[in-house]
Amino acid sequence: MELSATAYLWIKALHVISVIAWMAGLLYLPRLFVYHAAAAPGSVLSETFKVMERRLLRAIMNPAMMAALVTGGLLLANLGGDAWEAGWLHGKLAGVVGLLVMHGLMARWRSAFAVDRNTRSETFYRFANEIPTVLMIAIVVLAVVRPF
To answer: Which structural domain range is residue 129 located in?
Structure first.
């Protein structure tokens, strides 16, 4: 598929915007989990975190993820055949799969908090909070620098 230069730039801009919004959620939701894990189940604080987590996931993260996938797919479809053989693209796509897995895990963890069945510690969520950061760094370096 060959996009016009103008369409390509608009899609690329929308992709960057949606990735920023998605990453904001992927970085903030586990931080909320850190604080939620310390709150007593059923407390006012716990109930407040439930609302914040649900809204963040449903109103920001899910739509931003979908927009990032759609616009990213359009950009992928515009790549030439040679790009599909490049190691940087395979690495970037593996990183995106990693972000999708983290998104799914966070949705599952949010569901456990929603019914007061969290079994994980604050420390677990502190470590989980670092994974999207590492994946993001790898994805950006691979997409921009294209080291291989």
So the answer is: 5-145
Backbone angles phi, psi at 53, to 5 degrees: -65, -45
What pTM, to 2 d.p., does this model score? Answer: 0.95
Per-residue pLDDT of the chain (148 residues; tens, 9 = 90+): 788 999 999 999 999 999 999 999 999 999 999 999 999 999 999 999 999 999 999 999 999 999 999 999 999 999 988 889 999 999 999 999 999 999 999 999 999 999 999 999 999 999 999 999 999 999 999 999 999 9
Residue 15's nearest CA partner among 58, 91, 75, 82 is: 75
Number of domains within the chain: 1
Separation of alpha carbons 32 and 12, rounded Å: 30
| Backbone angles phi and psi of 86, in degrees to 5 | -80, 135
Q: How is residue 11 written in tokens?
A: 């899609």
